[in-house]
Write a structure and sequence with these properties.
alpha+beta, Outer membrane efflux proteins (OEP), 2 domains, 4-stranded antiparallel β-sheet, two-stranded antiparallel ribbon, 11 helices, 67% helix
């Protein structure tokens, strides 16, 4: 009784929450996520920070200008000469340095260009991740709702079977076993209903974390919608595309090039540097006792050449370190290619098998519903038992749940396939909107 009351309360709460607003499709939820998801917002700020690598690298090739100033007070006393004096010297200076050749600065600038590219690629990875997270959260809710709908229908059927079993037992036309069996099945579905309601709440909270607001009612997947197949419908073509266009592979290629530049940068520590250097200084010194002043103005311009001879082996060590990191980047790139190929194959097979499984379960549902009708008819004529009817009903509802799960999994696999090939965009989510229908009030 308590379980039934709790299920009724949760049901009312769910209906109030889900029935208050018109349903939102996948694209609408994605727009909310793009504006409110904290993970994507963090990635966007990381991208903005990455863009600053370019002006920082460019600054190493541009002139630096410095200003210095000094002001002092000195007191001088001489017992031997018998005099004392004080002075207030002051002055200022300007210095300009323009790098003409610094191999390390040049490589740092080239690295900065690659780091900006890396930031752009990382942002695209975050965008694709957002697409997948939104779609998965969306379809997880729909699947949980389908489970709840199926469990409620199953509970209603068991309730009817329980009522009939009790009537037949009261008139002596059946044993208590039928009643006990129907009661056990009914109680089990009550527990399943509570679990399904809880699962919906958990799934809704997951989506709400992404969109940072209460989840609206969602448009449902049309039962008659045909699941899309991969285009092209060729696994090898998708694998080849993933190995060249996958964002993980692109990031690996960029990281490898940055590592290669780092090797050249560290080798540059052995090379000479050449700078254009200009200075201007104005110093003034006035003696109080003699009221005399000495003003000095100097200016200079020239070239400064520096050649490192020995720094304790630090440069050679950094070269070896950079070379090892370059080898690591090469293996990381190879790992990314292999993983992209594996992910693509798994996603492709997920789409194909998901479609095939959905078609098979559609036919199985027709068969189990036919079997249920035949079993009920057999019960009426006395060749079937009530337990047979309960088993047939359970098979029907189990097939319905499996069919719904297969359809959602096939859709997610299709999005995962495009993500593995670096081709997942917002347009793919909009395309799935065509498979949805408005939630009935």
């Amino acid at each position: 009784m308590r379980l039934t009351l709790l299920a009724a309360i949760l049901t009312c709460l769910a209906e109030v929450v889900w029935g208050a607003n018109p349903s939102a499709n996948l694209s609408a939820i994605y727009q909310l996520a793009r504006d409110n998801d904290a993970i994507y917002a963090s990635a966007l700020d990381a991208y903005k920070a990455g863009l600053e690598k370019l002006p920082q690298g460019k600054a190493l090739l541009l002139p630096t200008l410095g200003l210095s100033a000094n002001l002092n007070h000195t007191d001088t006393e001489s017992n031997l000469a018998g005099y004392s004096n004080s002075a207030d010297p002051y002055g200022y200076g300007l210095s300009l340095t323009q790098p003409i050749y610094r191999k390390q600065n040049l490589e740092t600038y080239e690295q900065a260009k690659l780091q900006v590219l890396q930031a752009e690629q990382t942002l695209k990875v975050s965008e694709q991740d957002l697409h997948l997270r939104v779609a998965k959260a969306y379809f997880d809710i729909l699947q949980a709702q389908d489970v709840l709908t199926t469990v409620r229908a199953q509970k209603q059927a068991y309730a009817e079977q329980l009522a009939q079993a009790r009537k037949t037992f009261e008139v002596g036309a059946a044993t208590i076993t039928d009643t006990d069996e129907a009661k056990a099945r009914y109680d089990l579905t009550v527990a399943q209903e509570i679990a399904a309601l809880n699962d919906i709440e958990v799934k809704r909270r997951t989506l709400e974390k992404i969109i940072n607001r209460e989840a609206p009612p969602l448009a449902l997947l049309d039962e008659k919608a045909r699941l899309p197949l991969p285009q092209p419908n060729d696994m090898d073509a998708w694998v080849k595309r993933a190995e060249s266009d996958s964002l993980a592979v692109a990031l690996g290629q960029t990281s490898q090039e940055i590592a290669r530049r780092e090797v050249d940068k560290q080798k540059g520590g052995h090379l000479p540097t050449l700078d254009l250097v200009a200075n201007y200084n104005d110093n003034r010194n006035q003696a109080m006792a003699t009221q005399s002043s000495v003003n000095t103005k100097t200016g200079s311009i020239g070239l400064a050449l520096a050649l490192p001879l020995y720094q304790g082996g630090a440069i050679s060590s950094r070269v070896r370190e950079a070379s090892a990191n370059l080898e690591k980047a090469r293996f990381d790139l190879e790992t990314a290619r292999r993983q992209a190929a594996l992910d693509t194959r798994q996603a492709y097979l997920g789409v194909i098998s998901g479609n095939a499984q959905a078609q098979a379960l559609e036919q199985a549902l027709v068969s189990t519903e036919t079997q249920l009708r035949s079993t009920k008819l057999g019960l009426e004529v006395g060749v079937r038992t009530r337990v047979d009817v309960l088993n047939a009903e359970q098979q029907v509802y189990s097939t319905r749940k499996d069919l719904a799960a297969a359809r959602y999994q096939a859709l997610i696999a299709g999005l995962t396939l495009k993500a593995a090939a670096g081709a997942l965009t917002e347009a793919d989510l909009k395309a799935l909107d065509g498979l949805l229908r408005e939630k009935k009030p």
